[in-house]
Design goal:
The protein is α/β, with parallel strands linked by helices. About 40% of the residues lie in helices and about 15% in strands. The protein folds into two domains: about 200 residues, Alpha-Beta Complex (inorganic pyrophosphatase (n-terminal core)); about 120 residues, Diaminopimelate Epimerase, Chain A, domain 1. The strands form two sheets. A six-stranded parallel beta sheet has the order 1-6-5-4-2-3. Strands 7-8-9-10-12-11 form a six-stranded mixed beta sheet. Helix 10 links the parallel strand 8 and strand 9. Helix 6 packs antiparallel against helix 7. The longest helix is centred in the first third of the chain and has 16 residues.
């Protein structure tokens, strides 16, 4: 990927950021990875399958070419896919010489307890703030896993073990290849990973077709309490702490609940609002492209992609639902 031209920048401040922070090509990134050692690979807060799968795959590849590489021990790994991260966790006292952030659009997404800075960021979010010294950014990719896959192919090639890590990354960020961000390139990547040894049927059962009793009880509450706006074109789900308690659910049971309201017939835009406390909530915004999710979430300091973004709003969850519905309604006009 070519470096961003200053002609595309909107102001001098942005230009100064790019002078300090370089946009890298695959070849340049491979060179950096080969030239350095003692890597710490960092995943974002509230880690999902893409950030964990991609980071673990990068650790695997670096180790395979003789490097020392570990994952930062994100305290929220236990809420998602701890079995992916466990073989790569940094031992206590490890002192990295080079830090890589994976699938992380901004330093505001650093995991709890991380105090370092990013030497390199590998990401696919158009909203990336270029906070790292060097950035490999492919915003046209559906997942970060697809970018890391290209790095792995250059570093050591694909084998069954790393292909499974990457399959988790690619499949989870596309909802098992049903979200609107899925492209022919995504499907080609998944096919290549399967031919390299990824057990897609085995992984799909674990990732997408196995739910705890608490998760099923939580889903029942969510599905029966959708809020419909704009003649059903907008569907919003409010997930309260009371609902979690009633279902006996924890954070691990909340994986991908953002996909649920989008299943409603006629939904163009879906929003999942997860209560943090009485006056704040976490927003997951999904759209078919008619509404720009990134634009709406940016109003509240968040961001992501045009069709999938997130933010946190300092507002009561139900008031946030009405506020977002009003904004979405204006976007439909």
């Amino acid at each position: 990927m070519a470096r961003i031209s200053t002609k595309s920048l909107t102001n001098r401040a942005s230009w100064l950021v790019l002078r300090r922070n370089r946009i890298m090509t695959i070849g340049e990134t491979v060179g950096i990875l080969r030239d350095n050692d003692d890597f710490l690979v960092v995943t974002h807060i509230r880690p999902d399958g893409d950030t964990i799968g991609s980071a673990s795959a990068l650790c695997y590849a670096l180790r395979k070419i003789g490097k020392t590489a570990y994952l930062y021990n994100n305290p929220q790994f236990g809420d998602s896919y701890p079995w992916l991260a466990e073989p790569y966790l940094a031992p206590e006292g490890f002192e990295p010489k080079y830090t890589v952030c994976v699938d992380m659009a901004d330093k505001g997404l650093y995991p709890e307890g991380f105090k370092g800075s990013a030497d390199l960021c590998i990401d696919h979010h158009p909203s990336n703030s270029l906070y790292a010294k060097n950035t490999l950014l492919w915003p046209h990719k559906a997942s970060c896993g697809e970018i890391v896959m290209e790095l792995v192919k250059e570093l050591c090639g694909l084998d069954a073990e790393v292909s499974e890590l990457l399959y988790v990354a690619v499949s989870t960020d596309t909802g098992c290849f049903v979200y609107g961000n899925t492209t022919g390139e995504t499907l080609n990547a998944a096919s290549e990973l399967c031919f390299a040894g990824a057990r897609n049927a085995f992984l799909n059962k674990i990732l997408f077709r196995t739910s705890s009793k608490a998760r099923l009880a939580l889903e029942a509450q969510i599905l029966s309490s959708f809020l419909y706006y704009h003649d059903g074109k907008t569907v919003i789900s409010v997930v309260t702490k009371e609902m979690l308690e009633k279902a006996g659910a924890n954070e691990k049971d909340c994986q991908d609940i953002a996909a649920l309201p989008g299943r409603a017939e006629g939904a163009f835009t879906s929003v999942t609002i997860k209560e943090i406390d009485e006056n704040s909530c976490k927003i997951s915004f999904r759209t078919n492209g008619l509404v720009d999710a990134n634009k709406v979430c940016a109003m509240f300091g968040g961001g992501g992609h045009k069709m999938a973004s997130g933010c946190t709003i300092k507002m009561n969850s139900f008031k946030a639902a009405d506020t977002l519905a009003d904004i979405i309604g204006e976007e439909y006009k």
